[in-house]
Structures are given as structure tokens and as C-alpha cells.
Specification:
The complex is a heterodimer of chains A (402) and B (610).
Chain A: E1 10-14, H1 16-26, E2 31-34, H2 41-52, E3 59-62, H3 66-78, E4 83-87, H4 89-94, H5 99-104, E5 110-114, H6 129-132, E6 140-144, H7 147-161, E7 170-174, E8 184-188, H8 191-197, H9 224-253, E9 261-264, E10 271-275, H10 279-292, E11 297-302, H11 310-317, E12 322-326, H12 341-349, E13 357-362, H13 372-388, E14 395-397
Parallel strand pairs in A: 2-3, 2-4, 4-5, 5-7, 6-7, 10-11, 10-12, 12-13, 13-14
Antiparallel strand pairs in A: 1-8, 9-11
Helix pairs in contact in A: 1-2, 1-7, 7-9, 10-13, 11-12
Chain B: H1 25-30, E1 40-44, H2 50-54, H3 61-69, H4 73-80, H5 87-93, H6 97-101, H7 113-126, E2 141-145, H8 149-160, E3 164-168, H9 189-201, E4 205-207, H10 218-224, E5 227-230, E6 236-237, E7 250-252, H11 253-262, E8 272-276, H12 280-291, E9 296-300, H13 313-321, E10 325-327, E11 330-336, E12 343-351, E13 360-362, E14 369-372, E15 375-378, E16 382-383, E17 413-415, H14 418-421, H15 430-449, H16 487-490, H17 503-510, H18 524-528, E18 534-535, E19 545-546, H19 556-560, E20 566-570, H20 591-604
Parallel strand pairs in B: 2-3, 2-5, 3-4, 5-17, 7-15, 8-9, 8-15, 9-10
Antiparallel strand pairs in B: 1-20, 6-16, 11-12, 12-13, 12-14, 18-19
Helix pairs in contact in B: 3-4, 3-17, 4-7, 5-7, 7-17, 8-15, 11-12
Classes of the chains: A alpha/beta (402), B alpha/beta (610).
The structure holds flavin-adenine dinucleotide and iron/sulfur cluster (3 copies).
């Protein structure tokens, strides 16, 4: 029995954190494992209020650290509960031990991430390194660029993660502050739409004292590889489900997302930005302005980074002359000596018959906004490379170079 | 699709939570037998609780407390009856060495074991039929001389083994000091009578007014019985050898109490009574004197203080409550008066060496004290009356000469109780007499069957020490106290002073027991084992088993066993159940096992010509 009271479709002006909390409410989660850290705290607060007000009937457990928080999430999920948790920045790191066990035991826990820079600098700005550092732990992962998309992504992720063909945990990410704390209009659906899209969760083999079973038993080393292979199969196999679910979401809610990439003004574009998250909103404005000046610039925004849509990225990015990857993350000592997105993009492009030039831009670091001027500067760098037929260098530190 | 075309062989399929039915608890464990990690193996080994060890007849105290805790009173009563014929008696009179030894006493307060024992004894008294039955008759006849605790216990155990037992008792009523010594307000006669009835129900013949040496001779015993137990006690009071001890109004403790207990007393006490002696008999005499009409009772002891006195602290406390006065460091050197006692002459005195075990030094040069009294009761110990005993069996202590099995030479005569334990270092008390009677009965049986006998002192097993237990599991909890009659009024009556436990009190007190060294099926080990590899078909001592294929020797169960009955034993001490490391990790034929087979196959293949 759904415990959420029936609601009619309505548009509200809320920030990303509250949109996430609303999504958890619409998903009728059973257990909320919480531990405060800004900017995620706002989601935790909103949910606490909903539970206190009786709007949402869920176990709300405040842990004593992120490690416990994710342990609680793991346990609750094993018992068959739909679990919602979340964190930011160093909090994401503190729970690190649990990411592999959760995906290893195939528990579709959902974790909301409102990005925050790791220390240093110890500020509250958004940098994607927190969640990205866990990207290979077997969690489905992707970024929203605004509050509405964040709301939608939560529902979509539950539906994918809980699909029996998938059964994987999900990190549903949004930029701290740029998305998490800026209000915008969000359409909250009619509860019947959610009921249609997201059936109540039923774990196939939960822990249950009436039917004792073992989860995560100690196994022999030689049994490790098949288990890893199973997880790899699940991750890869989820791609078909992801496409299916996004299609259905569009049909029910009227918002149609390409599950992998948003292409903005790419039809005739020669140079494109390749990025994820909230900076995509600024990028759209910058592109509009530059288009007015006749520059053939566009944007490809990555919506799902795990599983990585290698073939789509290859197919789309290879249409252009130059691709400028905006990192918003730290990959110290990485192939580009910049962020980590570059390597994935290049790897995807490797098989392409015609490869674009690829440049990595270190922008938005430490949670700084990427201002329009910087988009113009980056566009200029891409156009120069296009003209030269050669990149000047792999990585540019935006704001620190001529 | 990079995972396309991958295949997982059946033998490597791993069931895991999300995608396949999760394995059952056992199957989950089957995946990885961890037994070969173990260096220490947990072993269930019950140890002897100190209470059981201290009890003179080694009652299984921990066992019956556990049963009482669970409400299984009848089982508890049956268990106690293995070693103790009359828990209703010892539940009242015993000096409870068990409680002195109780580990809980070192933690907060000892378990009130005697009170629980009395609860069970009274429950047994109320039964229409006792739980104990006579053994299958073996055609052998045994005479037991004396119906005190030792004789009672020996007769009881022999009857249970199938002997035809006859008790010969010189007094008109049976019970020994239980009747003619221990006062009625400690042990009401109807309680004892019921226990004697139980004895007769076992088929034992009880002959009172039958004295060995007078009515029956040593040769009669030899002729008419296959064996004989001498449990004749110490029936004669000691004198202090003071001048004028023969004056009227001078009484001896033992006959004074005996006559009251037997209902034949004609004594009339004056208002002022002195009691000479510092032991339990003297205390009983002093308190009995109050009940016989005395107004001022003074106890006079050689011992310099109460600690030196061989008396139970509880009895002393109760005596003071009743208003008895106590003088120390004095000996009575003369009884003064004209034919009848009028006063006592006292001199300062000390034991020359060990308290109660050395001659008394009396300072006769010091000025004598004169103490006016109407009566004096001398209670300074007892000795035996053995003029019927063949001289070769007498010893220098004036008791019976026995070997360490309680046997008189190579005869089928055995001795038990005070007569055997006097001077041995064992305190003389009912439970020790009961234990002695029990052990002698078993040895007598062995002797008649031609089996080797067991020494009278039992070998001490590992006795559980408090520091080997896990005290975190035992919150402090006060002892449940028995009710007592008001001292002002009780001392004028023969009413039983100490009140029984209610059922609730008995259960509450039994639940305080730590179960020292003995598994009480608390289930901790079962619950804490992380493997988990402990099984038990049901919660019961003796049914817990370690599955050695999986126990990795982490010791958690050992640490968390509250009672300390789980021990860690080095794996090298075992040659069964050992899980060897046949392959690097797995004992089942997994990958490593398969590789091993392939290597064997390879070796047997003829070399190729290259
Ligand atoms: C006054 C007093 C109070 C005591 N109070 C306590 C107490 O509260 N708690 C405690 O634990 N202990 C107490 N004791 C000690 C305890 O009573 C004795 O240790 C115990 O009774 C010894 O038992 P027994 O069977 O060896 O001897 P006894 O109880 O003395 O029994 C010996 C029996 O043998 C009989 N007998 C003797 N000679 C013959 C013969 N020739 N033919 C036939 N029968 C014979 C006697 O009549 C007597 O019935 C007390 C002792 C005394 C004296
Ligand atoms: S007989 Fe005495 S020592 Fe034995 S259990 Fe009872 S009270 Fe304790
Ligand atoms: S706590 Fe229980 S088992 Fe331990 S000594 Fe006391 S009565 Fe005996
Ligand atoms: S932990 Fe409890 S059940 Fe296990 S051995 Fe110790 S006393 Fe017995």
C-alpha cells in the first residue's frame, strides 16, 4: 500500500535539495539513512520534516557517520526496503568502504549526491570529484543540470536500479549550490503517474528471519571472478533497461530525456563543449551569445556516466572537429594531467574512423562558477585548434592562462 | 558488449543476494570452510563451581539453582536428592560453607543457597510420594549404628543401591543431634519426623532404644550383617575440670539440649544463667536458656574476641539481637556455692597456641572475678563413648581408627560422621556428616563387590575462579534476605526464627547465580559466533557443538561465555576433526583442487617428442 497521500500535479518553486526530497517522497521510500553534511543536509532536513509531518511514512535513521549511514542503507536494502540516502564531498569519501559491498550484493540503494569540493580548499563549492571518485564501484551514476531533472532522475534511477535485470545501486548527482540551492520551477507529478511508473519495490530474496538465508557469504578466491563478471554483466546489461525506462518516463510524464547525452545546438556545430551537471545551463547561454556572433559552437551534456555510453559518445562526438571537455573534477596525474572525463571521452573516440581533436578544460574548480567570459575563452581555444588542425596542449587551466 | 559470450561454469556459480535465490544459512557457509584457519579450538568443558565443591556432600548447587530459575522445582528437588537425603533439614541448619565459597560473594553478595535448598526441601516434604525409590534388592544386609545425619545419609544411599538396611539407635527417638542438639526453633521436629518417614518408606528398618554394646554386641553385628556403618557421633559432653563442677545447677550443654529436644527435660533455670564455651553449641545453649525462662544470659569464652570464636557469625548476630551478653578472655576455674551453684570464679585465660587447638593458659595469679549466677551450662565440646569397640580399632584421639576410605582395617565395618571426622580438620557439621555417610556408603558397596575404594577426600576438579568468567554479563543485584521473627518476642517461644522464601524469592535468588564454570545454556556462544558455526538441537547444557569445519578459532565465543565453561584448546592437541590445508584455500575441489588433478594427469602423460 502506498503511504503517500494522493496529490495532483502542480508546479512549485524549490531548490535541488528539496526536489530530491520530494522525489524520495513520491517514491514512497521505506528507510532514510541520514547524516548531515552541507549541501546535502537540506535534503535530509526536508525529509525529516515530511516524516515528522506525517507526509511520508518511512523509518528515518540518523547515523553516527557516513560509514554507518551507508551500512544502514545496505542492511535496510537487504531486508527488502526501498532505501534513500545521500551525502556530499568528504562525506561521500568516508562511506567509501560500503560502495563495493552494496553493489556486490546487488542492493538497489539510492544515494543522492549534492557535490561538494573535497578538502582542500575546504569550501562548500561544487566539484564532481566526490562522486566521480567512486565511479567504478558498480553504482549507476549520472548528473542533473537543474532541480526538475534532479527530481526526474531520482524516480528514473529507482526504476532502473530495482529492475530485476539490473539490481544495482544508484548515485543520483547534482551540483552543490548551482542546483542544490538555487530555486527554480519544478513540476511535481500527479501521484497516480508515479504509481504507474514506479511499482512498489520487492526485493526477490530479502533477509527475513522466517526464511533464513545468507547474503554476502565468505567465498573462495576462485569464486571471486565469476562474481565480478556477474556485476559487470549487470552494469552492461542495464543499458537496454536505461533506454527502455527513459522512454516510458517520457510517455507518462511528458518529459523526454535522452538517457545518455543532451545535445544543444549541435546540428551544424564544429566545436562542442562536453560536460556534465549544472554548468550546462550557463553553457546554453554562452552558446546562444556566440551563435549570434556566428560561431558554430554547441554542447553535448553527459547525463549518465556509469554505465558509460561509449558507443553513443563515439558516434556523437566524432561528428565534430574539436571537443572541449569541461572537467569540474580533479584527476591528478591522469592522462591529461587534468580531470578524469577526458580519458573516458578519448577512449570512446578511439575506434571512430574520424576523430575530433580533444582538449580538456579545468574549469569550475573549487566550486567556482564558470562565467560566460570563460566559455568565450574556451571556445576561442577550440577554434584556434580547429584552424591549426592540432591542439596547443591537452589541458588548459581556465582563468590562469592568456 | 564486452561481457557478451562470457560463460560461468556451474561449479563456479556463486549464489548471491540480488540475482539468485540466496543460499540457505548452511549452504552459504558451505562456500568457504574456514576451519583450517584455526589455531585454537573452543571446547565445552564444565568446571566445578566453588559452591558444589564446598558443600560437604557436594550437592549440585549450580544445577538446582538453574532449574529453580526455570521453574522446574521438582527436577531441582530430584537433583538435590542425589546427594542430600533431607534438604528440608540442611536448608535450615546448615552452616552453608557453599555460601562462604560462592563466587558471587566476591562480587556483591553470595547466593542465599541454603534458603533455596530449604524451599526445595519443603516442596519435597509436601509431596505425597518422594521422588527417590529403593534400589533393586541385592540380598545384602547392612547395619547402620546411629540415626544422626551420617547414619541417615549412609542408610539412604545404601537403600537406593538395594541393600537391606537396619538402623540401630540407642535413643528412644531417631535423628541424633538433629533432634537432640539442634534446637526446635532452628529445626522444628515435624520437619525431621517427615524425613525419617521418608527413610522408612525406602524400606529401611529403624530400631530405636537399641544400643550397641548393651542390646547388640560387636559379634552380633559381625554375624548378622554383611557390613556395618558406625555413625555413633560424639555423645558425651566434655568437662572443664573446674572445682565444684558437681554442684547442683551445673548443666552440660549437650544433655541440656538433648533432653529438651527429646521432650524429656525437667530443667528449671534461674533468672541468671552463664554459658561456658565459645562455639555454636554454646550459642544454642545461651539462646535456649532464654527460652527456658532465664532473664540474664552471659556467655563466657576463653577466646579474646568474636573472630576467634568457632561460631557462625550469623548465629552470633542473632544471639546478640536476643540480648545475650558475651565476656571474653576468661576461664571458669571454680563453681562456688553451698551445694548449689551461687557464683562462678573466673580467671583471665588465653589459648597457648592456635585457637581451639592448644592448651589454655590460665593466669591464676591474677585476682579472681566472682560472678553471681543461678545456673551454669558448660558447652565445651563432646567426646565419644566407645567402650563396646574392640581396642584394636580405637585411636589416640578417642575415636575410631579408620583408613582413608573410612574402613576399619580389612573388615566390612566403616565409620562416618563426627566419630570419623573429629580431629581430622574437617569442621563437625551436619552436611559434612551427610557427605561422609554418602561416601562411606559407596565405598562399602565397592568393598562388598570387591572393587577398589575411593579416598574419602574427593579429588578437586578444576574449581571455577571468578576471574575466568565474564563479569560484564552480571549486573550487581542484592541478595534476597529471609524474614526473621522479632528478637524481643521470639526469644520467649519455640517458634522457628528464620522464615522461608516465597516461590518468587526463591526464583529471584536462584536467578542471581553465575553458574560458575558450568554451561547454563545462556545461548551467548550460539549468538555471538560470527561464522556462525555453533549448533544446538535445543538450549541445554551438553548439546552445544562446534562445527569444526568452519570454526576459525576467533575465540569470540570463549570470551563471551559468561560462565567460563568454554575453553580455548590449542588445535595441535587434537587429532580428530582437524581441517587440514590440502590446497591453498579450499578443502573442496575448487579451482586449486582441479589444478592439482591436472598436474597429476600431466605427469602421467608420456613426454611428447618435440
Ligand atoms: C548443640 C549442637 C548444635 C549443632 N548445630 C548444628 C547446626 O546448626 N548445623 C550444623 O551443620 N551442625 C550442627 N551441629 C553439628 C552436627 O549436629 C553434627 O556434626 C552432626 O549431627 C553429626 O552427625 P553424626 O551422625 O555423625 O552424629 P550424631 O548426630 O551425633 O548422631 C549419632 C547418633 O548415634 C547414636 N548412637 C551413639 N552411640 C550409639 C550406640 N552405641 N548404639 C546406637 N546408637 C548410638 C546417637 O544416639 C545419635 O543418635 C551441632 C552440634 C551440636 C552438638
Ligand atoms: S547442604 Fe549446606 S553446604 Fe550443601 S548446599 Fe545446602 S547449605 Fe550449602
Ligand atoms: S554464583 Fe552460583 S555457581 Fe557460582 S559459586 Fe555461587 S552459587 Fe555456585
Ligand atoms: S556462552 Fe552460555 S550457552 Fe555458551 S557455553 Fe557459555 S554458558 Fe553455555
Amino acid at each position: 500500500m502506498p503511504t503517500v497521500t494522493a496529490t495532483k500535479k502542480k508546479t512549485v518553486r524549490i531548490n535541488g535539495c528539496v526536489a530530491s526530497a520530494q522525489a524520495a517522497k513520491y517514491a514512497d521510500v521505506d528507510v532514510i539513512a541520514a547524516y548531515p553534511i552541507r549541501p546535502y543536509t537540506a535534503t535530509m532536513m526536508a525529509l525529516a520534516q515530511m516524516v515528522a509531518n506525517g507526509e511520508l511514512d518511512a523509518e528515518y535513521i540518523v547515523a553516527d557517520s557516513e560509514h554507518s549511514q551507508l551500512s544502514i542503507a545496505h542492511g535496510a536494502s537487504s531486508s527488502g526496503a526501498r532505501v534513500f540516502t545521500g551525502s556530499s564531498g568528504v562525506g561521500v569519501q568516508f562511506a567509501y568502504e560500503l560502495y563495493s559491498p552494496i553493489s556486490g550484493s546487488r542492493m538497489p540503494v539510492q544515494m543522492m549526491i549534492a557535490d561538494r569540493t573535497l578538502d582542500p580548499p575546504g569550501d562548500f563549492g561544487s566539484e564532481h570529484t566526490d562522486a566521480l571518485s567512486t565511479r567504478d564501484m558498480g553504482w549507476l551514476m549520472g548528473w542533473a543540470c537543474d532541480a526538475q531533472e534532479a527530481f526526474d532522475n531520482h524516480l528514473i534511477a529507482y526504476r532502473i536500479g530495482e529492475d530485476r535485470r539490473v539490481l544495482l545501486p544508484q548515485m543520483v548527482c547534482q551540483d552543490g549550490f548551482f542546483v542544490s540551492h538555487i530555486t527554480s520551477d519544478v513540476e511535481l507529478p500527479d501521484s497516480s503517474q508515479v504509481r504507474e511508473f514506479l511499482p512498489p519495490y520487492k526485493h526477490p530474496y530479502p533477509l527475513d528471519p522466517r526464511h533464513p538465508v545468507s547474503h554476502g557469504p565468505q567465498i573462495m578466491p576462485e569464486q571471486g571472478p565469476p562474481l565480478q563478471l556477474e556485476r559487470a554483466r549487470a552494469m552492461e546489461g542495464s543499458m537496454a533497461v536505461i533506454e527502455e525506462v527513459h522512454k516510458e518516463f517520457g510517455e507518462i510524464f511528458g518529459r523526454h530525456y535522452d538517457p545518455w547525452l543532451e545535445e544543444y545546438k549541435t546540428d551544424d556545430a564544429e566545436v562542442v563543449f562536453f560536460l556534465q551537471g549544472g554548468h550546462g545551463v550557463t553553457a546554453r547561454f554562452a552558446i546562444q551569445h556566440m551563435r549570434e556572433k556566428g560561431l558554430k559552437v554547441g554542447m553535448v551534456r553527459l547525463r549518465t556516466i556509469r554505465p558509460y555510453p561509449t558507443d553513443r559518445v563515439c558516434e556523437v562526438l566524432s561528428k565534430f572537429k574539436v571537443v572541449g571537455v569541461i572537467e569540474t573534477n580533479m584527476g591528478l596525474g591522469s592522462p591529461s594531467s587534468g580531470g578524469v572525463l577526458y580519458a573516458d571521452a578519448c577512449a570512446a573516440l578511439y575506434e571512430a574512423p574520424e576523430r575530433p581533436l580533444v582538449i580538456s578544460f579545468m574549469a569550475g574548480m573549487g566550486g567556482e562558477a564558470i562565467v560566460l567570459k570563460e566559455f568565450y575563452w574556451m571556445t576561442e581555444k577550440m577554434i584556434q585548434a580547429q584552424k591549426r588542425g592540432k591542439i596547443e596542449k591537452r589541458t588548459h587551466w581556465v582563468g590562469f592562462e592568456e | 558488449m564486452s561481457t557478451k559470450g562470457t560463460k560461468i561454469p556451474d561449479w563456479l556459480t556463486v549464489p548471491f543476494a540480488g540475482i539468485t535465490p540466496a543460499p540457505s544459512q548452511d549452504k552459504g557457509q558451505n562456500l568457504f570452510p574456514t576451519g583450517n584457519w584455526r589455531a585454537i579450538r573452543p571446547v565445552y568443558r564444565d568446571k566445578l563451581p566453588p559452591c558444589n565443591n564446598a558443600c560437604g556432600t557436594n550437592e549440585k548447587i549450580q544445577g538446582y539453582l538453574d532449574l529453580v530459575k526455570r521453574g522446574k522445582y521438582l527436577d531441582a528437588y530430584a537433583l538435590i536428592k542425589e546427594d542430600m537425603p533431607f534438604p528440608s533439614v540442611t536448608g535450615r541448619v546448615c552452616y552453608h560453607p557453599c555460601e562462604q565459597a560462592c563466587n558471587r560473594g566476591k562480587y556483591d553478595e553470595a547466593i542465599s543457597i541454603r534458603a533455596v535448598e530449604r524451599f526445595l526441601g519443603d516442596l519435597g516434604q509436601a509431596l505425597k510420594h518422594d521422588v527417590v525409590k529403593p534400589g533393586k534388592p541385592n540380598g545384602k544386609k547392612v547395619a547402620v549404628i546411629g540415626s544422626g545425619p551420617a547414619g541417615h545419609s549412609a542408610a539412604y544411599q545404601l537403600a537406593r543401591m538395594g541393600y537391606k538396611v537396619t538402623i540401630l539407635e540407642k535413643s528412644p527417638k531417631p535423628g541424633g543431634l538433629n533432634r537432640g542438639g539442634i534446637p526446635v526453633w532452628v529445626l522444628p521436629p515435624h520437619v525431621l519426623d517427615r524425613e525419617i518417614e521418608r527413610l522408612v518408606e525406602l524400606g529401611i528398618t529403624l530400631k530405636t532404644n537399641t544400643e550397641v554394646g548393651k542390646d547388640v554386641s560387636w559379634d552380633d553385628l559381625k554375624k548378622n550383617y554383611d557390613a556395618c556403618v558406625l555413625a555413633v557421633g560424639l555423645t558425651e559432653p566434655n568437662s572443664v575440670r573446674a572445682e565444684g563442677e558437681n554442684k547442683e545447677g551445673v548443666l552440660y550443654g549437650l544433655p541440656f539440649l538433648r533432653d529438651i529436644g527429646m521432650g524429656t527435660s525437667k530443667v528449671k533455670l534461674g533468672p541468671r544463667v552463664a554459658v561456658i564455651g565459645g562455639g555454636n553449641t554454646a550459642i544454642d545453649c545461651a539462646r535456649e536458656a532464654l527460652r527456658q525462662g532465664a532473664v540474664e544470659v552471659t556467655m563466657i569464652t576463653v577466646e579474646a574476641n568474636t573472630q576467634e570464636m568457632p561460631a557462625s557469625p550469623e548465629d552470633l548476630h542473632d544471639m546478640f539481637e536476643e540480648g545475650v551478653d558475651l565476656w571474653h578472655g576468661r576461664a571458669m576455674t571454680a563453681v562456688l556455692g553451698n551445694g548449689k551453684v551461687e557464683s562462678l570464679q573466673l580467671h583471665p585465660a588465653r589459648f597457648s597456641g592456635a585457637i581451639n587447638a592448644s592448651p589454655i593458659n590460665i593466669d591464676r595469679n591474677a585476682p579472681a572475678e566472682k560472678f553471681a549466677v543461678d545456673n551454669v551450662i558448660i558447652a565445651v565440646g563432646q567426646h565419644a563413648s566407645l567402650n563396646w569397640l574392640p581396642p584394636e580399632f580405637k585411636n589416640e584421639r578417642g575415636t575410631i581408627k579408620i583408613d582413608r576410605f573410612g574402613r576399619l582395617g580389612d573388615t566390612n565395618f566403616f565409620a562416618a560422621g563426627d566419630i570419623a571426622q573429629f580431629g581430622s580438620g574437617q569442621p563437625l557439621m551436619v552436611v559434612n556428616a551427610v557427605g561422609d555417610g554418602k561416601r562411606v556408603a559407596f565405598n562399602l558397596d565397592k568393598a562388598l563387590r570387591g572393587e577398589p575404594l575411593q579416598p574419602r577426600t574427593i579429588a578437586i576438579d578444576v574449581i571455577m575462579d571468578l576471574n575466568r568468567m565474564n563479569m560484564t554479563y552480571f549486573p550487581h543485584f542484592p541478595r534476597v534476605h529471609q524474614g526473621m521473627l522479632n528478637p524481643i518476642t521470639r526469644k520467649k517461644t519455640q517458634d522457628e526464627v528464620i522464615q522461608p522464601f516465597t516461590e518468587e524469592q526463591a526464583v529471584e535468588e536462584a536467578a542471581r547465580c553465575f553458574s560458575c564454570g558450568t554451561c547454563n545454556a545462556c545461548d551467548n556462544c550460539y549468538l555471538v559466533c560470527p561464522e556462525p558455526c555453533i549448533t544446538r538441537p535445543e538450549r541445554s547444557n551438553g548439546l552445544y557443538k562446534i562445527i569444526v569445519d568452519y570454526c576459525k578459532g576467533c575465540r569470540v565465543c570463549i570470551e563471551e561465555c559468561p560462565t567460563g565453561c568454554l575453553e580455548g584448546v590449542p588445535e595441535l592437541d587434537f587429532d580428530t576433526g582437524v581441517v587440514r590445508m590440502d590446497t591453498a584455500f579450499a578443502i573442496s575441489p575448487g579451482l586449486h583442487g582441479r589444478q592439482a588433478q591436472e598436474l597429476v594427469n600431466l605427469a602421467s602423460r608420456p613426454a611428447k617428442n618435440i
